[in-house]
Amino acid sequence: MVQQSVFRAELCALDRQEQAAARLPPAVPPQESVRDPLKGHPTYKKLSDINHGSSGFVQLAEHRRTGEHIAIKFIPQGSESVKRAEKEILNMRLCNLHPHIIQFHEVFLTPAYIAIAIEYADCGNLADYLASHRMSKQRQKGLRENMARWFFQQAVVALDFCHAMGIANRDIKLENCLLVSNPNAADWPLLKLCDFGFSKDEYTDSLCKTACGTPEYVAPEVLQYSKYDGKAADIWSCGVLLYVVVTGSFPFRSAAESSAESKLNPMVQLQHMFPRIVAADYERPKHVSADCRNLVERMLTADCSKRITMGEILTHPWFRQGLPSYLASLNEERLALSETAAYGMCRQDKADILRITRQANMKAVTCVKPTKTLGSAEEPPTRLGSDAQAGGQGPSHRQSGDDRPTRLGSDAKPGTQGPSDWMVDPRNQD
């Protein structure tokens, strides 16, 4: 088919781009990458490394004053990922009031990185949870249906909130469903969506054009290289997620995907899966209930105009079964708060966030924290220098509740910052 020929040609082009990128010098000097980017930082200190990838790395840090554990994502300044980081920060900030979305704490620059401080998920992610469940149960099937429903309900409620705020996530997958300890049910952790790097704000452009996401979860319309509804694509990805959680396998993988070649090259994986995804050709799970199977089939409908909607998922019998009462009314309450609080706070901080991300190729460093959210304790500002005046007229370190950005020193050498190097009087900056 012509469409598949075009697709294969674009795969080859993408493959050549990947090979060319592999030959490029690293965006971060090697001596900086092996050091602690938080050395001398007044607020955080590094505890350990969590993860690393092609676009950056994540570290576990501790808040020096409160002892709270924070995850900090570091992205090299000047890299292609900075633009995605800008979108991710703005959209996370917009959804900051929801308890099933990872909370955004702060964004700042170090001499080599843009750093995004977010809530730390102490129980890993859903992919790891599923893998450990398989090992403990010594079987290849997924979770029990009631357990799978517990996680799926939280993911859908969080995604519904994003959609109501005008945001399509476009990268729903097991790895982006983080888990935190649940004090009310120790065996079943709470789920929180994360990673808004591919997210799309419908108020900027109503339809999506970029083919993005993870091959196993990508919707057919995304592969057609035409404009598509990002929210409908999210629902398809939710269908894949539910299928994997209840069966322990991906719906569109064939024997070819288990080969060594495809494991090394995701483009080969997608090339094998493409015909099956477009045709919605997968094996229907037989060991699950009829209601569960029906919901999966309606989410994995190739024609997006006939695919189940978010509203229909929320009222589906399988989804409603055992739905916690707090989840049933959560979004209505949070949306009411968002209209008066989160939406306004996001707009209030947007200029500061944009200033930081667009300085990512410079050595001027800025720090901004979100405005105080409901239920959070306000922190007293820390004064800078001897000219701080009573009533908060002197320069101060950024604290929650203070909406003015503090600019941090631009002449500090990598890995040598002390507290005084990190913080300078913003009135001396351009």
Task: Summarize the SSE layout with pairings.
Blueprint: H1 2-23, H2 30-33, E1 44-53, E2 56-63, E3 69-76, H3 81-94, E4 104-109, E5 113-119, H4 126-137, H5 145-164, E6 167-168, E7 177-180, E8 190-193, E9 200-201, H6 230-247, H7 260-264, H8 266-278, H9 290-299, H10 310-314, H11 317-320, H12 325-340, H13 342-357, E10 365-368, E11 382-383, E12 396-397, E13 406-408, H14 419-422
Antiparallel strand pairs: 1-2, 2-3, 3-5, 4-5, 4-10, 6-9, 7-8, 10-13, 11-12
Give an overview in words.
By secondary structure, this protein is an alpha+beta fold. It folds into 2 domains: 30-120 and 341-428, 2-Layer Sandwich (Phosphorylase Kinase, domain 1); 126-338, Transferase(Phosphotransferase), domain 1 (Orthogonal Bundle). Helix content is 38%, strand content 14%. It has helices spanning 2-23, 30-33, 81-94, 126-137, 145-164, 230-247, 260-264, 266-278, 290-299, 310-314, 317-320, 325-340, 342-357, 419-422; strands spanning 44-53, 56-63, 69-76, 104-109, 113-119, 167-168, 177-180, 190-193, 200-201, 365-368, 382-383, 396-397, 406-408. A hairpin with a 5-residue loop joins β2 and β3. The longest helix has 22 residues, at 2-23. It is globular.
